[in-house]
Design goal:
The complex is a heterodimer of chains A (377) and B (492). Chain A has 18 helices and 10 strands. Chain A is of the alpha/beta class. The chains are: A alpha/beta (377), B alpha+beta (492).
């Protein structure tokens, strides 16, 4: 969406009876830097100045807009329904058009257009994690859409997901020529890169699924899930099959647990799955249904869950600040007394796991798929 | 003679030496969001010439740093504007003469001392954080303003903030036991002792409560705390007329009941609550009643008696048994202004500005007369607006709307607000019960205080001889042009 189209929302935020600052209470980047220009309200004010033309695009402005996780916590507390994260996303698009896209994001964008992933990896290695000797059918009723992060950075998660689906007896396959879903591009204001538009990527993925004859696409990455269910339709690409997040699919199909040892777990809501797409209860119901599992909540959960610090390109652009955000979440998890923090997102998994290891948290961080493979073993 | 006021770059370098580079902002993108507060932001949007950029923003993390900055600022006569969360409603934070905005967010320490029934907090601690810490220990700091989730303790003390609980629990002033303050010249003083009672000398801490940053920077606050009432009950009473709602409120108070909250809402406010997801009955006026305490029988009896009064005037009652639902209803009440902003603009008037700016306090016996006259004034001037407030303590809020593109509408809204304030003063009221004076109410201060305003100005000169602390506010140096709303249109 273009920034101009959001001007009514921006005006509503800044009208003299609002600009209330509620969004300041839940903002990871404000927490890191502590200054107004890195708060949702401050960024919306900057966008108003940009729209009015009394603030010119600049590298500094770009930097303030990109130092946001787009977690959407500001959106959930906003009494006016401004949607600051959408405004910030649109501002990124405007800054990209004006030539102020930070190099790191441009480089990854270009790579996506060429090699269909943001990790600067070759496309041919996308399924290098697949266990040797595993044979998947050409066509199947279910397609597992793996996503870039599981394919290139959290390969074990991809393997575990496949293992879980096989143990459940699901007749599934993969898209042989799966491309990046485009979430990274949309979140960083790059609706089009080097002549390639995200709509084209969406259509390609859609065709890939159709070729497999699938009626259901299962995605384990919330970024991909939002792309398929939220962004693609907005771009005019409507899937004619159902798209489910893995947690939704697992709950529907049913899980049978084998192990019954008692364990206390807490669940971290990924921003893209929870706040952005409203999937809060399915993973909780799965966890609560498992014998021996005690699910305890962190004080901030569901709509006001604290971000892991990985989203919106934040981890790539601000590694140190992103760890600070993650540590805050790990502290909350530790205070629950849980032994395991379960999430359902490869980004959150990677971010929280690495931070927990780096700072010596005695807390296991696992994706729900990994946890289930272990419990159902 | 004072050294010359340094330019922006030089100022930035000097501040960096004092607090470190990471705590100083001088780029336009960082300064712009500090050029307005809750009050001016929307208007600035429409009157772009009112851009009051500070020269620098500094984010100190200790009293020593604040002291160093003020010593320097005083020497060079640089304005200093202390700032919390920027939720002020009267233009308290606008750097009308540039200078240094001091964002105190990093000074957010909270130390609960419940054994002494008090809490020590930095000015940047938020009300919500403070109460989270206290509630875990069974206590709370009661004066809950509408901005409770975001506002800071420093801001609350500086504006003597309060909210819907003031009828029973009072305003911030009633809880301040001691303040650490850095005076304009950099001297650090402690005002008051950390005791719950003192009869020792002038209570200078009280001079700083509500001083809006014009006398010094508050760097630490010690507050009295109250045991958290474990029982809270809420009832919403919807009436066939606003007058019935009002008369019921007066009868409740007249019976000697002091409810935890007693809020008056008009028809449009009810609509705003329904927009927040509630399904409340339609009516012309409503009361939100809250009773709290330790003993169920006492809470039930108090609420029962209030409900009986309301029923006697034809009210439909919506009892809220569930505390979670009650909390959501009170949260929605606090967001009424914001909800109205969502409600009011239409495709025909997409740029309708809603300004909830009148915040007068009245003797209880004059409130009905005031509300009736204001409603008549609205009608006469063709103003679309709302009337609500903390009826239990005589505090009335009036919100009005205008289309900023229309000079005629801007002027009509301005003259309406002015008349609403002057009417309150003529009835023995005060021009602000909880929002403070700031910029926009400065033109009316003399009418309320007469020659006492000069005494206030003398105190200001005594404590801030260089006039660096938050200049332009509270009419202490005269009335800045920006406060004269009639000039906004032609200058904007």
């Amino acid at each position: 969406m273009r920034l101009e189209e959001l001007s009514t929302k921006i005006n509503a935020c800044l009208s003299s009876s609002t600009a209330c600052g509620l969004c300041r209470t839940q903002c990871p980047s404000l927490e890191c830097w502590g200054v107004e220009s890195r708060s949702p309200r401050g960024r919306v004010a900057l966008c108003a100045h940009l729209l009015r033309g009394d603030l010119r695009p600049s590298p500094s402005l770009s930097e303030r807009m990109f130092s946001c996780t787009l977690c959407g916590n500001c959106d959930s507390v906003c009494p006016v329904g401004v949607g600051a994260s959408r405004v910030i996303e649109a501002a990124r698009g405007r800054l990209k058009e004006e030539g102020f896209l930070p190099h790191k994001y441009r480089e990854r964008g270009t790579h996506i257009a060429r090699e269909h992933n943001p990790y600067l990896e070759p496309h041919r290695d996308r399924f290098s994690w697949l266990p040797a000797g595993l044979s998947l059918p050409e066509r199947a009723p279910v397609v597992y859409f793996v996503g870039c992060t599981s394919s290139y950075r959290e390969k074990e998660l991809a393997r575990r997901t496949v293992e879980l689906l096989r143990r459940m007896g699901v007749d599934f396959t993969l898209c042989a020529d799966e491309w990046c879903c485009g979430s990274f591009l949309l979140r960083t204001g790059q609706g089009e890169v080097d002549g390639t538009r995200v709509e084209e990527m969406a259509r390609h993925n859609l065709e890939e699924v159709r070729k497999r004859g699938a009626r259901t696409v299962v995605v384990s990455c919330p970024g991909c899930y939002r792309a398929w269910r939220g962004d693609y339709p907005e771009l005019g690409v409507e899937p004619d099959f159902e798209v489910l997040h893995l947690t939704q699919f697992l709950e529907r199909e049913g899980i049978r647990a084998g192990r019954v040892e008692e364990v206390r777990v807490t669940y971290h809501d990924p921003c893209h799955l929870g706040r952005h797409m409203g999937v809060y209860e399915e993973p909780r119901r799965i966890l609560s249904s498992l014998p021996g599992v005690e699910l305890v909540e962190m004080p901030r959960n569901r709509e006001n869950s604290w971000c892991c610090g990985s989203g919106g390109g934040f981890r790539a652009g601000y590694p140190e600040a992103s760890r600070q955000v993650a540590r805050r979440r790990l502290e909350e998890a530790r205070e629950t007394g849980a032994e395991i923090l379960v999430t359902s997102c490869p980004f959150c998994l990677r971010q929280l796991k690495e931070t927990a290891e780096a700072f010596g948290y005695a807390l296991r961080v696992m994706d729900l798929a990994e946890f289930l493979v272990e419990r159902c073993g | 003679m004072s050294p010359e006021r340094p330019g922006r770059e030089e100022l930035g370098r000097a501040l960096e030496e004092m607090v470190g580079k990471e705590n100083v902002l001088t780029e336009e993108v960082d300064l712009l969001p500090y050029s307005a507060d809750h009050f001016l932001r929307g208007l600035q949007h429409y009157f772009p010439r009112f851009r009051f950029l500070p020269d620098a923003v500094v984010t100190p993390s200790s009293t020593a740093q604040v002291s160093r900055i003020l010593r320097f600022a005083s020497l060079h006569r640089i304005p200093v504007i202390p700032r919390g969360a920027g939720t002020s409603l009267a233009g308290q934070l606008i750097p009308v003469e540039g200078g240094i905005v001091m964002d105190l967010k990093k000074m957010n320490r909270i130390e609960a001392r419940v054994e002494d029934r008090m809490v020590v907090a930095g000015p940047g601690a938020t009300y919500a954080e403070l109460n989270r810490e206290l509630e875990r220990r069974g206590y709370f700091f009661p004066p809950e303003p509408g901005s409770a989730m975001a506002c800071t303790i420093g801001g609350m003390v500086s504006t003597n903030a309060s909210g819907s609980g003031a009828v029973k629990y009072g305003a911030t002033r009633n809880y301040v036991l001691s303040l650490e303050v850095v005076l304009a010249g950099g001297e650090v003083v402690r005002l008051g002792r950390r005791v719950t009672k003192s009869a020792s000398g002038y209570s200078l801490k009280d001079l700083f409560v509500g001083s809006e940053g014009t006398l010094g920077v508050i760097t630490e606050v010690t507050l009295r705390v109250e045991p958290y009432p474990p029982l809270r009950r809420t009832t919403l009473a919807v009436f066939p007329s606003l007058e019935d709602a009002f008369r019921s409120a007066m009868e409740i108070l007249g019976r000697g009941i002091t409810p935890a909250s007693l809020e008056l809402l008009d028809e449009l406010c009810l609509l705003a609550l329904n927009m927040s997801g509630f399904s409340l009955p339609e009516g012309k006026g409503a009361l939100m009643l809250r009773s709290d305490g330790r003993y169920e029988e006492a809470v039930e009896r108090e609420m029962g008696e209030m409900e009986e009064v309301c029923r006697g005037r034809g009210a439909q009652l919506v009892g809220v048994e569930d505390e979670g639902l009650g909390r959501r209803l009170w949260e929605a009440r606090e967001k009424i202004s914001a909800s109205l902003t969502k409600l009011l603009p239409s495709p025909e008037t997409p740029r309708l500005v809603f300004q909830s700016s009148v915040d007068v306090g009245l003797p209880l016996s004059r409130m009905l007369e005031y509300v009736s006259k204001v409603k008549a004034l609205m009608e006469e001037k063709g103003i679309m607006g709302v009337c609500f407030g903390h009826v239990g303590d005589g505090n009335v809020h009036i919100g009005s709307t205008f289309v900023p593109e229309s000079p005629e509408q801007v002027e009509r809204a301005r003259s309406f607000q002015e008349e609403a304030i002057k009417l309150a003063l003529s009835l023995g009221g005060t021009l602000t019960a909880e929002h403070g004076v700031g910029l926009w109410k400065a033109p009316y201060l003399e009418e309320e205080h007469g020659p006492v305003l000069e005494l206030m100005r003398s105190l200001k000169r005594l404590l801030d001889p260089q006039g660096i602390m938050n200049p332009g506010k509270m009419a202490l140096e005269g009335i800045p042009r920006v406060a004269l709303m009639e000039r906004w249109w032609e200058e904007g």
